[in-house]
Structure prediction request, 53 residues.
Amino acid sequence: MTYNPETQMVGEGVKFERIRRITGYLVGTVDRFNDGKRAEERDRVKHTPVEKH
Prediction:
């Protein structure tokens, strides 16, 4: 696939796995977290990509 800056954002359509750093550990999912770690992840500020104009 070729990137077209007129119609696409960089990385659009690329699949990736999110890695999080929670209380010093790198993890892919939070399904094994206890309530405290889940709350820490939930309370963090979430950043979103900026839309091109």
